[in-house]
Amino acid sequence: MSNTESHTDIIIAGGGMVGAALACALAEQGFSIALLERREPTEDWPQDSHDIRVSAISRASQNIFSRLQAWPGMVRRRVTPYEQMCVWESSGAEIHFHAADIGEPDLGHIIENRIIQIALWEQLRALDNIDIHCPASISGLDLDENAPRVVLNNGTQLSTSLVVAADGARSSLRELAGISTGGWGYDQTAVVCTVRAEKGNQATCWQRFMTHGPLALLPMDDDLFSIVWSTTPEQAQELTEMPAGDFDEALTRASEERLGRLELQGERGAFPLRLQHAKQYIKPGLALVGDAAHVIHPLAGQGVNLGLLDMAELTDVLVRARGKGHPLGSLHTLRLYERARKGENIAMQGSMDLFKRVFSNDLPPLKIIRNLGMGVTERLLPVKNLLIRNAMGTLGDVPSLARSFHE
Ligand SMILES: Cc1cc2nc3c(=O)[nH]c(=O)nc-3n(C[C@H](O)[C@H](O)[C@H](O)COP(=O)(O)OP(=O)(O)OC[C@H]3O[C@@H](n4cnc5c(N)ncnc54)[C@H](O)[C@@H]3O)c2cc1C
Questions:
Q1: 136 to each of 39, 292, 361, how far by Cα in Å?
Q2: Is residue 116 in contact with ligand 1, taking CB distance under 6 Å?
Q3: What protein family does this chain belong to (predicted)?
């Protein structure tokens, strides 16, 4: 297709986890969609390999995937439920969360990012009101409340009622729209990889807070964990470059041997960490979702979960606007989305930032407060239960797609 002009109700740029879920949701609501993605996801990985990028998926996100009928495709490939969470720091303070305490079968699932994406693409490829442009890159954006337009590098021109940027932290659509971001680098890098644990995974997520940053061990398969080790850029470089045997030693020591000896399986990756928030989520004819709008510290594994709540909220707002005959791209419509999501995302981003600061500090008064805080929380079941429900994303007024099936 070249230089032709076609019109769809909504253009979504980015078919990652958030953009692909949004395309499925809106197409299932009867909107016509153009989905633009740079790289086509393909399931060409060896059966016994594991993606080093994984996500801790909350119950709210699981509900979204289930309602989009993508959940069975994920389960068929590989999802790992976890029933417990253990958070500790070297001083001895420790806190445990159990699914059984709140009458749930699990607290969430660990899923490889490539599995989430491919299962969503399987769904969206089956919907005939989605035009997929892939590989596509965007060379121009003309924002207009009534008729925004996007131009692709191959000259294709697309007109629409609303453009959604789901093209990740370095969103080029956000840049083309002139929306700036605020934030800062954490001076931390996350080292990620898969490891085998001598004591098996025990269906438990483990997280140890250390001065340079948290070490998270997320269970996968029987005795495998995906690790996210946030530390200084210098130590991260050492950890990714040292021989595998030395890495095993360092990791086993950092985990205080809670899982026995840990052994690297395959490659290591490193991701510099930053906090980033778009100054605005909307402009006439444009909305930002997912990492294009906000990037948070991975210590509580909430990034994609927040992005999925964005897409679920935007779906509700657009369905309501259509029902009332309001234009999809008007500021009047889009403000409802921004109002519902921006405050929530800033609150989560702020609490993760505070956590990161409080736990990466060896000042004695802070250590005492941390120990007291963890000790008290460990003994107060109602507070613990509230924390768990909050992390599961099912507290409060959640968008329709994310609601529990019992409501
Ligand atoms: C180390 C680490 C661990 C994490 N762990 C967790 C976790 O446990 N739980 C959790 O919830 N979150 C976690 N996150 C965060 C999570 O990975 C992100 O929030 C999530 O990937 C954002 O999804 P997205 O779809 O918004 O963006 P992305 O995943 O970045 O997807 C963007 C898509 O847009 C495409 N694209 C980009 N530019 C263009 C363009 N110009 N045109 C067309 N397409 C384009 C890309 O190819 C990609 O497919 C973690 C992050 C890190 C760094």
A1: 8, 18, 45
A2: no
A3: Belongs to the UbiH/COQ6 family.
Paired strand residues for 150: 141, 158
Output the CA 291–ligand 1 centroid distance in Å. 6
Q: What is the 3-state secondary structure (H, E, C) of the chain?
A: CCCCEEEEEEEEECCCHHHHHHHHHHHHCCCCEEEECCCCCCCCCCCCCCCCCEEEECHHHHHHHHHCCCHHHHHHHCCEEECEEEEEECCCCEEEEEHHHHCCCCCEEEEEHHHHHHHHHHHHHCCCCEEEECCCCEEEEECCCCCCEEEECCCCEEEEEEEEECCCCCCHHHHHCCCCEEEEEEEEEEEEEEEEECCCCCCEEEEEEECCEEEEEEEECCCEEEEEEEECHHHHHHHHHCCHHHHHHHHHHHCCCCCCCEEEEEEEEEEEEEEEEECCCEECCEEECHHHCEECCHHHCCHHHHHHHHHHHHHHHHHHHHHHCCCCCCHHHHHHHHHHHHHHHHHHHHHHHHHHHHHCCCCHHHHHHHHHHHHHHHHCHHHHHHHHHHHHCCCCCCCHHHCCCCC
- Most informative mutation of 65, 117, 304 for ligand 1 (most atoms within 8 A of CB): 304
Q: pTM here?
A: 0.93
- What are 91's two structure tokens? 């001083």
Question: Mean pLDDT per 10-residue run, the chain (407 residues)?
Answer: 76 98 98 97 91 96 98 97 90 84 93 98 97 94 90 94 98 97 90 97 92 93 94 97 98 96 97 94 98 88 93 98 97 97 84 64 58 63 72 86 83
- Tell me, in angstroms, the distance from the centre of ligand 1 to residue 309's CA: 14
Cα(278)–Cα(273) distance, integer angstroms: 16
For each of the domains in the chain, give its residue range(s) and CATH number, in order of start. 5-79+108-183+275-363+396-402 (3.50.50.60)
Q: Which of 254, 245, 269 is nearest to 192 (CA)?
A: 269
99 ligand 1 Cβ < 6 A: no
CA-based nearest residue to 283, from 377, 144, 160, 383 = 144
Cα separation, 93 vs 367, whole angstroms: 10
